[in-house]
Structure formats: C-alpha cells, structure tokens
Amino acid sequence: MEHTLRCNSLKCRKELTDRALVTTCSHIFCTDCATRLGLIGQTHEQRNSCPACGTHLTNPDDAVITNLKPSEDYKTSVLSGLSPNIVVECASRALSFWAYQTTQEIVYQEWLGKALTEKYSNLSVHLDKVINEANSEITSLQNKLAKLRKKHDDVTHAFKDKNKKLLQTQELYDKLKRKAMLGQMQGAAEDAVDSTLQAASVSAAGANGFMDGTSGRETYQEPGVSYRQPHNTIREQPGVTASYQPPGMNLSHGDTWFRTVGAQCRMFNS
Q1: 37: buried, middle or exposed (CB in 10 Å: 19+, 13-18, 0-12)?
Q2: Closest to 218 (Cα-Cα) out of 208, 231, 228, 232
Q3: How confident is the model over 29-56, as a mean pLDDT?
C-alpha cells in the first residue's frame, strides 16, 4: 500500500493529493497552511521559518509549490537534459524526502498509539474501579433487600398471627355477647311471667274482696296482710265521730291512707 503524504502542520494533518509546498528541510504543507503560515505570497527575504523544524528558508528555492500528480509530459521533460549523476542525485534526495516523511509518520503514529494506550489504560483502571464500586454497591443493596424481605416475611407472619388471634377474640366476644343477650331475654321473660302472675293474683283478690261492716263500703285485703281501722288517729271534733272516714276511701296499714276502692266498687256494681 502506497504511503500517503500529510500536511506536516500538527493542527491540520490532512492528506495531500494535488498540490503542496515542499521545503528543503524535507517538510511538506498544504497550500492553505502555507498561506496561513506565511510561506508563500511573500518574497524569500520575508518568508517565515519552517513551522515544523524552525529552519530559515531564505533561498528562493527553499520552499516551492509542487504538483503531486504531474502529467506524462512533465515527467518526460522535468529531468531531461540533466546528467545521469544529477538525475540520480535528484532521485536520491527525493527518496530521502519520502523516507523522512515515512519515518515521521511512523513516529507520530507510535506516539499517538502510546497516548491512546495510556489513555485506554487509565480509562480501563477507572472503569475497573467503577465496576468494583458498582459490584460492591450491588452486593450491599442485595443484602439490604434480603434483610428487608426477611423483615417483611416476619411482619407478615406476625400480622397473620395477630389477625388469627383477633378473629378468635372476636368469635369469643360474639359468643359471650349472645350468651348475655340470652340471659337478658330469659330475665325479661321471667319478669314478664311474674308480672302476669301478679296481675292475675291482684285481679283474683279483688274479685274475692269483702264489704266493711261499719262503713258499708267494699274493702280490699291483700293476702297475708291484716287491716284495721285505728281509732286514735282521728281526733274527735264537734259534730264528727272518730270512726268517720271520707267517702270512697279505705284506711289500711296502720294510720295512713292506703288506696281508693272506687274501682272495685264500680266492678261490683257492674
């Protein structure tokens, strides 16, 4: 593969295919860089030094524009008329130029490869460090996740136990509540039966009552209770005897007014 010449300006480095400026110090530049660096467009006295090596280019032929793709006629006429020694010398210097450019390109590529290798090594070390830190972080997070999962399982198990105990307590509470309600219903039923029996006894006792001898009115007597009319509780007043009692009232249980008997009288009258 044929070597391709490149502009010797390190900021340019573009391939040269058509025209270029060649110096006697074996450097070559593209026309744009040659114009920018002051190598063409000026007299040889005002020409700047070589940007690559700093050699002063004071002679008229120290920097010339060369056609890199000469025509066949140019190839025929350029060395025509020159002695073989001059032709060989020109060819030798041209080959030396190519050897120098090739060597410089190899050195440049070596330095470029070395710089890239060093940068790659630094990046590789940094990447390994990042990978190790990431793996450590992943391991730590996995351990935390395992602990959280275990804690979650423990909490879930404890919750299930608490829920089971709550259901058992609720069931026991419901049983006790039903038992208490049954006891209340039983007590209410017994109270209702007692009330019914007491009401029946009162009705039967009222139906079997007797008439009082002195007053001529009906007197009710509860079973097991003795009734008497006190004579010392009413003081005698003029025109009123001690045995007087208001119409429709019956004295019972000592010296207090107990109850009216109008209802019983109406029952007997009916």
Answers
A1: middle
A2: 208
A3: 83
Domain 1-69 top-level CATH class = alpha beta
Most confident of 124-133, 182-191, 232-241: 124-133
Determine if the pTM surpasses 0.85: no
Phi, psi of 247 (to 5 degrees): -60, 140
Q: Give the CA angle between residues 265, 267, 270 to the nearest 5°.
A: 105
- Domain positions in the chain are 1-69, 83-172
96: which 2 tokens? 């030396």
**Degrees to nearest 5, angle at CA 123 with 120 and 125:** 110
User: For tokens 């996995």, what's the residue?
Assistant: 142
* Angle in degrees, CA 114, 119, 122, rounded to 5: 125
pLDDT 10s digits, 177-231: 988 888 888 888 888 888 888 888 888 777 765 444 444 444 445 455 444 444 4
> Which pLDDT does position 209 carry in this prediction?
59
- In the chain, at which residue ranges do the beta strands (DSSP E only) sit? 19-23, 28-29, 63-67, 210-211, 218-219, 249-252, 256-260
Give the count of beta carbons closer than 10 Å to the beta carbon of residue 220.
19
